[in-house]
UniProtKB/TrEMBL annotation:
Cofactor requirements of the protein: NH4(+); K(+)
Ranges in a coiled coil: none
Binding site for substrate: Y96, G103, A104, D105, R106, T187
Entry superkingdom: Bacteria
Organism: Spiribacter salilacus
Catalytic reactions of this protein: (R)-pantothenate + ATP = (R)-4'-phosphopantothenate + ADP + H(+)
Protein name as catalogued: Type III pantothenate kinase
Function: Catalyzes the phosphorylation of pantothenate (Pan), the first step in CoA biosynthesis.
Binding site for ATP: D7, I8, G9, N10, S11, R12, I13, K14, S128
InterPro entries xref list: ATPase_NBD, Type_III_PanK
Location in or out of the cell: Cytoplasm
Family stated for the protein in its record: Belongs to the type III pantothenate kinase family.
Length: 253
């Protein structure tokens, strides 16, 4: 069965095709405002899928737009995936007291890590928010935390000190971990270094805490738009899986 998978985030939307539990086409992405146009152009070159499965971290108008577009062009079912209230799904036992409060993207990232045989793991999703979830070797979620992402940190700082310059944390921009010293010599570089290195240091400390709690070395698995920059600044070894949430969607039965 071919499934169109859609991951609707705060600032980016990603989509791809899966056959069974495997991604079988290149992952596409766009900003929300351009999503329907981009997906329509992409969909013109594929056969209609058997179904559509999507996850969204927010209540977004794109969800209803997807439903309408799919009904008009393909007439196949659209399933919005949510965190299971039972606390168990995709082979993962959710550790929250109220499982439905855990973001579906966090749950699916853990499902994706399990599908890749990466447990026990510290699963870090570095997007608009940075989430950190600890999952043991038996796929039991041990809990997690949420912290501000790099752009959110900058936005908060500039809200109270608006004279500070804006910083672009995206890979390939002028600043990077490789060409920006930790102790910077200009304000823009200092903001970049402070955001990336402080975040990386916090995550390194959390990984150490996780290893101590589990009494074993957890794999550090990063995903999300800022994963590359943050991983480069972390001291602990890590792997980057940019499509982990989509892989979790594909792994659901």
């Amino acid at each position: 069965m071919n499934t169109l998978l859609i991951d609707i985030g705060n600032s980016r939307i990603k989509w791809t095709l899966a056959s069974g539990d495997k991604l079988v086409s290149d992952v596409q992405s766009s900003e929300p405002a351009q999503f329907l146009q981009a997906m329509s152009a992409w969909a013109g070159g594929i056969r209609a899928p058997d179904r559509v499965r999507l996850v969204s971290v927010i209540e977004h108008s794109v969800i209803s737009q997807v439903n309408d577009w799919v009904a008009e062009h393909w007439g196949v079912p659209v399933q919005r995936v949510r965190t299971p209230n039972s606390g168990h799904g995709g082979g993962v036992q959710i550790g929250y007291d109220r499982p439905e409060q855990l973001g579906a993207d966090r749950w699916l990232a853990m499902v994706g890590a399990r599908a890749r045989n990466l447990l026990p793991a510290c699963v870090i999703d570095a997007g608009s928010a940075i989430t950190f979830d600890l999952i043991n070797e038996n796929a039991q979620h041990q809990g997690g935390l949420i912290m501000a992402g790099l752009l959110a940190q900058q936005a908060g700082l500039r809200a109270i000190t608006p004279e500070l310059p804006a910083v672009d944390f995206r890979p390939g921009q002028s600043a990077s971990v490789e060409n920006t010293p930790v102790f910077a010599r200009n304000t823009r570089a200092a903001l970049y270094s402070g955001g990336v290195h402080a975040t990386a240091a916090a995550l390194d400390a959390l990984v150490c805490n996780a290893n101590n709690a589990q009494q074993m070395t957890c794999q550090v698995v990063l995903t999300g738009g800022d994963a590359v920059e943050i991983a480069a600044a972390m001291r602990c070894e890590s792997t980057i899986h940019p499509n982990l949430v989509l892989e979790g969607l594909a792994a659901l039965s």
